[in-house]
């Protein structure tokens, strides 16, 4: 192996052969705060060649999240190129203690890295070698990794210490016309759901697809209605913050321009009463966020309304799955969704992986205590 200095890291490149067809691999770690912006075009091209990529891995979503939530000097973008073409990428955030995590925090449902499908295993090995994880206090922790994601190839290629844990429950339905979806349900549940669908039609709700250039205003409406929807309960504090508003508005506009986000407005009797955001990629359509006025909930089946338009979009695009994202909320359960668990991946250096050992102990302790804490909260809430 020979060492080639690229960017701010020394990448290992195989010794040159006489064959003109031998690929040249390089890697680098970019640290500038605008790296995701300057790489946007290459990043998006790679995302299109990575079958596991979701809208959360798009250049628009990642760059928007960093602008809203990132701290100067903490961005680490690991890149791998094959003959100059970007074939592997991971956007990471450095914590003060030396831990690296994926971008997105609690807002992301599916974390992943990007690997070109044409050379995914090779790119994963190069990406693993380029990760800045050499010191005892260094650690990479990837939350909410879907089964089968590119990040699992990175995990498999990692030669140091590693651990895989279960993360959030995600649920999904087959993306089929509503009639077929209802046919999956047990008798009485299907009967009630069909009655609710008839009531929807009779109510005269008008669903309007929002043009990409109008998504900014639509997100303002969505967040306003979302706050109203939760005003009598406990709204997620982050959803009413200025930085979330900035991120949601910017990322949705960028995703809508490339066909990875669709926004619907719903009017009843001429009044805007609901807005929802659907994320799209070849493998899934994801119900990310919605806002609905409490008055609408009193009159119609909100879930049936949103699922109806989402299924239409997914079927029209040839997408096989309607993802209900993370969580086991009651409104999802009556549709009998399939469940699967995301994973949490921990990577550390081969020797003296102190940070990894400590983090693993903390995560396991929290997991063990979680059921007890839920019971305590339930008792206190009575």
Automatic annotation (TrEMBL):
Every copy of the BioF2-like acetyltransferase domain together lies at 189-333
Indicate whether Nucleotide-binding appears among the record's keywords. no
Q: Which UniProt keywords apply?
A: Transferase
Keyword Transferase part of the UniProt annotation: yes
GO molecular function terms attached to this record: transferase activity
What Pfam families does this protein map onto? Acetyltransf_6 (PF13480)
Task: Fetch the InterPro entries from UniProt.
Answer: Acyl_CoA_acyltransferase, BioF2-like_GNAT_dom
**What's the protein called, per UniProt?**
Glycosyl transferase family 1
Q: Which organism is it from?
A: Streptomyces tateyamensis
Organism ancestry: Bacteria, Bacillati, Actinomycetota, Actinomycetes, Kitasatosporales
């Amino acid at each position: 192996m020979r060492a080639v200095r690229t960017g701010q890291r020394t990448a290992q490149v195989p010794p040159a052969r006489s064959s003109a067809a031998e690929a040249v691999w390089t890697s680098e770690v970019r640290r500038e705060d605008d790296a995701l912006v300057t790489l946007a075009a290459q990043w998006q091209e790679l995302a299109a060649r990575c079958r596991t990529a979701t809208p959360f891995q798009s250049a628009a979503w990642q760059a928007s999240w960093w602008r809203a939530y990132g701290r100067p000097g903490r961005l680490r973008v690991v890149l791998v190129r094959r003959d100059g073409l970007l074939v592997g990428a991971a956007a990471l955030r450095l914590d003060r203690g030396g831990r690296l995590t994926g971008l997105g925090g609690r807002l992301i449902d599916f974390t992943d890295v990007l690997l070109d499908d044409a050379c995914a295993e090779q790119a994963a090995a190069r990406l693993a070698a380029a990760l800045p994880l050499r010191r005892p206090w260094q650690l990479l922790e990837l939350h909410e990794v879907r089964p089968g994601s590119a990040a699992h190839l990175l995990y498999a290629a990692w030669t140091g210490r590693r651990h895989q844990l279960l993360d959030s429950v995600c649920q999904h339905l087959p993306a089929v016309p509503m009639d077929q979806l209802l046919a999956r349900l047990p008798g009485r549940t299907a009967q009630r759901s069909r009655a609710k669908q008839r009531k929807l039609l009779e109510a005269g709700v008008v669903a309007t697809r929002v043009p990409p250039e109008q998504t900014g205003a639509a997100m303002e409406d969505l967040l306003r209605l979302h706050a109203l929807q939760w005003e009598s309960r406990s709204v997620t504090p982050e959803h009413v913050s200025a930085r979330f508003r900035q991120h949601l508005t910017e990322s949705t506009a960028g995703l809508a321009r490339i066909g990875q986000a669709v926004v619907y407005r719903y009017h009843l009797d001429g009044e805007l009463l609901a807005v929802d955001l659907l994320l799209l990629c070849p493998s899934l359509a994801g119900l990310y966020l919605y806002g609905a006025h409490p008055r609408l909930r009193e009159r119609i089946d909100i879930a049936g309304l949103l699922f109806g338009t989402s299924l239409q979009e997914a079927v029209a695009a040839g997408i096989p799955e309607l993802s209900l994202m993370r969580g086991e909320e009651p409104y999802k359960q009556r549709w009998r969704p399939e469940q699967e668990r995301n994973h949490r991946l921990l990577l550390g250096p081969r020797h003296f992986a102190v940070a990894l050992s400590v983090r693993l102990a903390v995560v396991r302790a929290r997991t063990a205590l979680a059921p007890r804490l839920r019971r305590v909260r339930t008792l206190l809430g009575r």
